[in-house]
Amino acid sequence: MSRVGQVGQVGRVGQVGRVGQKGHKGATLPDLPDPPDPPDPPDPPDLPGRSCWESAERALAYLARADALPHRAEGEAALLEHLPAAVSRVLDLGSGDGRLLGLVRLRHPDAEAVALDFSATMLERLRARFAGDPRVAVAAHDLERPLPALGGFDAIVSSFAIHHLPHPRKRALYEEVFAALRPGGAFLNLEHVASPTPALHDAFLRAIGSTPVEEDPANKLLDVHTQLEWLRGIGFAEVDCHWKWRELALLAGRRS
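The structure corresponding to this sequence follows.
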């Protein structure tokens, strides 16, 4: 699976047409200049698990486990509760198969949406889920790279994706999210976070029916406190952890 450092549709950069319907335009992204083709930068040395996403089997196994996470629906309900009352554009970071974005679209059916992921398997699932929906733009993008210029959003959401990034990239992404939010917009990150102690981490694994041997090698978990402090330092208002069950947490902030 190749990484894509900019947004585009199959066959054209800068616009995503109606997914699955050739010749019909749907939700559009701002036109991006055609950059030169520099060589891809090397992967950071601390990413031993990133290559696992190149496997379709690995991606599908992840989706199966994620769907079965205990209390996940509670976290999703809390996220939906804290969406702004008016949402005309929403960005989903690391959309996976589109489960979270589908819930957001049920709450705000008239909102335009942009779904980003870099896994070929996830992108295939996204395009199938939103086929025929002219308001959803599906685009390939690796969150390891800076977000492209996509315009402003009333809500930026994510579900169990950002914890795969190295910590410095997490913080940089939060800064990019803040810049992309419209005034009053909300960032809602349903995330896998670090436990305070190894014993509590082991207890979490047991609670989800897993073991240290089965743990995702791509995980780069970080505690709630550090991430909330980052959000405050960046300029987010009303920063809080709105919901938490063991290592699953909803981190949130708004742009004033």
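Strands lie at 8-9, 12-13, 89-93, 112-117, 136-140, 153-159, 181-192, 237-245, 248-254.
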